[in-house]
UniProtKB/TrEMBL annotation:
<keyword id="KW-0472">Membrane</keyword>
<keyword id="KW-1133">Transmembrane helix</keyword>
<feature type="transmembrane region" description="Helical">
    <location>
        <begin position="38"/>
        <end position="60"/>
    </location>
</feature>
<dbReference type="GO" id="GO:0022857">
    <property type="term" value="F:transmembrane transporter activity"/>
</dbReference>
<protein>
    <submittedName>
        <fullName>Putative MFS family arabinose efflux permease</fullName>
    </submittedName>
</protein>
<dbReference type="InterPro" id="IPR036259">
    <property type="entry name" value="MFS_trans_sf"/>
</dbReference>
<feature type="domain" description="Major facilitator superfamily (MFS) profile">
    <location>
        <begin position="1"/>
        <end position="61"/>
    </location>
</feature>
<keyword id="KW-0812">Transmembrane</keyword>
<dbReference type="InterPro" id="IPR020846">
    <property type="entry name" value="MFS_dom"/>
</dbReference>
Length: 61
């Protein structure tokens, strides 16, 4: 919000959109893991790998 002083509504909507995109990608990743027969126990591992990849992306930017 400090960076987008001219358009705080736009900044808020982009933040909400990124949150929803993360939710959707997490659901897709979980579905792919299960559909490939890796089992339910692998879903948290895939989720943690996605979180690490997201953190790496944030640190790069």
């Amino acid at each position: 919000m400090q960076t987008a002083t001219e358009a705080p509504g736009l900044a808020s909507s982009i933040n909400a959109g990124a949150f929803n995109l993360g939710n959707a990608l997490g659901a897709v990743l979980g579905g792919v893991v299960i559909s490939h027969g890796l089992g339910y126990a692998t879903v948290p591992i895939a989720g943690s790998l996605m979180a690490v990849a997201s953190l790496a992306l944030v640190l790069l930017v």
